[in-house]
Amino acid sequence: MPADVLSAAQLAVTAAVVAGMATGFTRRPGRWMRYPLFSRATFVIVTLTGTKGDRTESVNPYAFLSPKTFLLPPPQLQTVIDHLMRTGRYDRIEGDGRVLSVNGEQPIEVRDSRVVL
Questions:
Q1: How many degrees, rounded to 5, is the angle at CA 16 between CA 14 and CA 22?
Q2: What is the pLDDT of residue 40?
Q3: Which stretches of 1-117 are assigned E, i.e. beta strand?
Q4: pLDDT at position 70
Q5: Which is higher by pLDDT, 78 or 33?
Q6: What's the rounded Cα separation, in Å, for the pair 60 and 5?
Q7: Are 93 and 56 contacting, i.e. CB atoms less than 8 angstroms apart?
């Protein structure tokens, strides 16, 4: 009989953990057993092109982040663009992409070196 009870308890705990993990990826942030990393993070996926004189090249904004940083929210993207403009590396930066957040996907543009949501 104790083996059956232990087996039933293991099954109940396993089912509860699986249910918690399955509902952890829903859109309701801040609830019990939610994944706050995924539900509150905001980051961009963007393709940028920098122009200096008549030379145009792709710009990788992730190359200018701190080590081990992989999320790039819009304000930090603007900071990277400002740094590239201030140092004189580019005259203008343009691009487009998507912002991913708890509100879903939204388009984002970089026009005249300014991030536009």
A1: 100
A2: 67
A3: 43-52, 55-59, 92-101, 104-111, 114-116
A4: 76
A5: 78
A6: 57
A7: no
